[in-house]
Backbone:
């Protein structure tokens, strides 16, 4: 059995080399000795004591593909530094003035390069299996408690990395990576397209998608996959089900449509390897961390209306009274309780200025950012205020941010990716493959860490994009 090929079929294995072994060699290795002390080994050898958990990771990706679609799809790239740097060809140069006279001098055309830096992030979870649970009869699939903990720890790692590939923002939570949407927003190409609260199935909703795909196509990308939260899935089906056509010999059991055809290249995957992703969440009211002794202290904030200084601002149709609140978030993503809600009346031509004052430090550490939330127009009581956007804290000074009505509360986003082509347009940079690190026991248990060091890396921003402010059934009547 060739384990390298098995691993590489899933794009992993950058930090692991097990070679090609036949079953007899593997059986011999597994059955040899059981001493944990290499110096005490007999001539018969010793049992394998592996550290890498890549095989467990691959198995989880295969069995739970619906949970970890993006982590399975994205190419994996092994890197050798905690700060990964590389040069990128941004532009090949201008084609103006290519024509010359017979002996004419050509016009110089220069390529453009950029230096890209990605900070590796360190994902860790501590697991523990008690002696009692480890002594029980096999509890899941013939595995003991320790093996089950290892497998469940793998799922925790995958759920977290999948989530942060969509929702991470390094400027707000420095210990976590910037996901692909945050990296797209940070690029000059700014492939951010606005649905303005429309559902995909609303009149004009599909036109917005076509415009996004077409704009990226003009820049050289060819969208092959679209990811979105489960709340948006029914709107895709409502958009496309009446467009599906079958001949008289078709035997159709259902209407699960998996491809979306545009004028710009092959059909796009909206199901299967892409489409619904359980870890891609709509913006809702944040939930305060249950780790009350570790989470940041709730902030306070003040509101003021002022004339529009940029962005969309509030117009006649959106003018009214809005309810706001703010949550603090720390460098590892722990969320505070909410600040007390407050209302602000906004007239046409105005925007909201929000001045946030940080709470007390927890363990000497202050919040690194804030989640700004807003409610439905003219609903001035209650706590149904939902996330609009996140903003980095301004150090010891108050953080001043503006609600210019460009980010709608409670809406969804969609991630548009170009997965075809000669070069990866995005990838997972792996500094250290998933592995186990054993800890010393201080009680009747087997404690260990599971660690995985890496980061999502958007290599060619202009070939990918996001669609923001996507409406869904959960925000009907909000906009």
Residues:
């Amino acid at each position: 059995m060739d384990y390298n090929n098995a691993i590489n079929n899933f794009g992993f294995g950058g930090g692991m080399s097990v070679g090609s072994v036949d079953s007899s060699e593997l059986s011999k290795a597994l059955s040899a000795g059981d001493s944990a002390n290499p110096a005490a080994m007999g001539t018969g050898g010793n049992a394998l004591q592996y550290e890498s958990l890549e095989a467990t990771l691959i198995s989880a990706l295969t069995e739970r593909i619906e949970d970890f679609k993006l982590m399975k799809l994205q190419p994996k790239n092994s890197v050798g530094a905690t700060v990964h740097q590389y040069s990128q060809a941004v532009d090949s140069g201008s084609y103006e003035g290519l024509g010359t006279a017979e002996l004419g001098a050509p016009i110089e055309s220069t390529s453009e390069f950029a230096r890209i830096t990605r900070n590796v992030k360190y994902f860790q979870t501590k697991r523990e299996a008690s002696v009692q649970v480890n002594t029980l009869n096999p509890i899941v699939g013939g595995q003991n408690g320790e093996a089950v903990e290892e497998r469940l720890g793998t799922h925790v790692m995958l759920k977290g990395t999948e989530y942060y590939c969509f929702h991470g923002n390094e400027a707000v939570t420095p210990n976590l990576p910037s996901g692909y949407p945050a990296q797209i927003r940070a690029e000059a190409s700014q492939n951010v397209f606005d649905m303005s609260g429309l559902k995909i199935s609303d009149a004009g909703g599909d036109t917005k998608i076509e415009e996004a795909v077409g704009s990226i196509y003009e820049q050289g990308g060819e969208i092959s996959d679209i990811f979105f939260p489960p709340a948006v899935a029914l709107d895709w089906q409502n958009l496309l089900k009446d467009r599906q056509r079958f001949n008289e010999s078709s035997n159709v059991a259902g209407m699960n449509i998996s491809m979306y055809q545009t004028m710009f290249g092959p059909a796009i995957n909206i199901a299967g390897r892409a489409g619904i992703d359980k870890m891609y969440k709509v913006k809702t009211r944040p939930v305060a961390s249950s780790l009350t002794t570790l989470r940041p202290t709730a902030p306070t904030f003040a509101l003021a209306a002022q004339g529009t200084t940029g962005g969309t601002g509030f117009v006649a149709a959106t003018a009214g009274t809005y309810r706001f609140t703010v949550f603090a978030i720390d460098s590892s993503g722990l969320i505070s309780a909410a600040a007390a809600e407050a209302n602000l009346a906004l007239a046409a031509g105005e925007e909201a200025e929000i001045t946030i004052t940080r709470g007390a430090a927890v363990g000497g550490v202050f919040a690194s950012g804030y989640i700004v939330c807003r409610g439905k127009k003219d609903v001035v009581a209650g706590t149904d205020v939902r996330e609009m956007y996140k903003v980095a804290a301004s150090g010891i000074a108050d953080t001043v941010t503006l609600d210019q009505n460009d980010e709608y509360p409670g809406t969804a986003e969609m991630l548009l990716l170009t997965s075809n082509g000669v070069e990866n347009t995005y990838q997972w940079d792996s500094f250290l493959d998933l592995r186990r690190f054993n800890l010393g026991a201080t009680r009747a248990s087997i404690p260990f860490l599971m660690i995985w060091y890496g980061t999502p890396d958007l290599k060619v921003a202009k070939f990918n994009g996001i669609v923001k402010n996507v409406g869904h059934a959960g925000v009907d009547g909000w906009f």
Remarks:
- The longest helix spans residues 145-167.
- The two ends are 58 Å apart (CA to CA).
- Residues 159 and 279 are 7 Å apart (CA to CA).
- Residues 1-21, 32-50, 250-255 have pLDDT under 50 and may be disordered.
